[in-house]
């Protein structure tokens, strides 16, 4: 009595409209919340990308180079070295130049008997102080950016130095931008101290070791090389290291001459340690054929050490001078 009846159909329609609005609102909110982490992640990535630029390290170009386009299968390449581990290490080629206002600029080139990825693993290994004898200890290591193939690492090491009869350690704090896509590793000093500038770059490029078997065809890609060698062709590495060294105060000659020689010697020891580690890895691949190769490699490295030792060269110079003086005829 006196009460109006509301049709149930109209109530259902209102509920459906309300539910539809809630669902639409829920979809909008869910999309918004989903986008927030992505936006935050992109913002953080953009900030980290600016970090190397702020510290003076150039970012690696995204344009793929020849080494990355080869897409070398490391396991297949290591199998080729297992079947044929023969390799003769050569003396690294070191070029020393003196830019204005700096101590020296070193450019080193050497061929290594291992695929680029294997060599790159040695150079970028966080525990590579077991390989490079001039690294006394790793004080700290922090990964600032990790994009899979590319990493930016804040690294501080204690490096061993030697000058004539004196020796000691010096802390080296660098920012390292390593990119496996093109097998490059750039480094630059973070804080200035004893060294005003210390920067450089490692590069590892592919070397077709058995390219002669493809004659007269000259392969330009790993696929062509692998096809023409029947999958037996080994691929090595062309390793280059360029570094600029500038102390806070560049000493005058002859001290600067000694320092350049010591710096070149230290860099050469670094490369020789890399060659020794490559020989050890090849030895593990084929122990039966490795003993002779390791002996030959050590003999070559010892010859280099003997001829490049500064103190020994100075002693030889004095001995030769005395012998020359004794051979001179006496005046009558």
TrEMBL record:
Residues annotated as domain DUF220: 167-238
Transmembrane segment boundaries: none
Pfam families associated with the record: DUF220
Cited SUPFAM superfamilies: Bet v1-like
PANTHER family: PUTATIVE (DUF220)-RELATED
Name assigned to this protein: Putative START-like domain-containing protein
């Amino acid at each position: 009595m006196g009460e109006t009846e509301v049709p149930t159909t109209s109530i259902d329609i209102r509920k459906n409209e309300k539910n539809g609005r809630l669902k639409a609102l829920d979809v909008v909110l869910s999309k918004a919340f989903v986008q927030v982490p992505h936006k935050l992640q992109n913002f953080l990535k953009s900030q980290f990308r600016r970090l190397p630029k702020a510290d003076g390290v150039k970012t690696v170009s995204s344009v793929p180079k020849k080494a990355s386009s080869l897409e070398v299968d490391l396991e297949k390449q290591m199998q080729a070295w297992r079947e044929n581990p023969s390799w003769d290490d050569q003396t690294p080629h070191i070029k020393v130049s003196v830019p204005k206002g700096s101590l020296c600029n070193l450019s080193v080139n050497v061929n290594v008997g291992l695929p680029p990825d294997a060599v790159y693993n040695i150079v970028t290994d966080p525990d590579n102080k077991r390989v490079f004898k001039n690294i006394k200890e790793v004080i700290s290591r922090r990964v600032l950016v990790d994009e899979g193939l590319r990493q930016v690492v804040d690294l501080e090491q204690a490096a061993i130095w030697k000058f004539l009869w004196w020796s000691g350690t010096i802390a080296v704090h660098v920012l390292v931008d390593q990119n496996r896509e093109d097998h490059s590793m750039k480094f630059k000093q973070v804080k200035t101290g004893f060294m005003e500038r210390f920067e450089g770059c490692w590069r590892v490029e592919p070397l077709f070791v058995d390219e002669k078997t493809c004659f007269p065809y000259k392969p330009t890609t790993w696929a062509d090389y692998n096809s023409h060698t029947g999958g037996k062709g080994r691929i090595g590495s062309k390793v280059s290291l360029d570094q600029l060294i500038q102390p806070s105060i560049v000493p005058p000659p002859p001290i600067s001459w000694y320092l350049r020689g010591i710096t070149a010697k230290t860099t050469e020891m670094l490369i020789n340690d890399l060659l020794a580690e490559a020989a050890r890895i090849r030895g593990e691949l084929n122990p039966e054929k490795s003993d002779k190769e390791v002996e030959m490699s050590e003999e070559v490295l010892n010859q280099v050490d003997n001829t490049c030792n500064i103190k020994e060269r100075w002693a030889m110079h004095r001995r030769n001078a005395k012998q020359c003086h004794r051979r001179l005829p006496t005046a009558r």
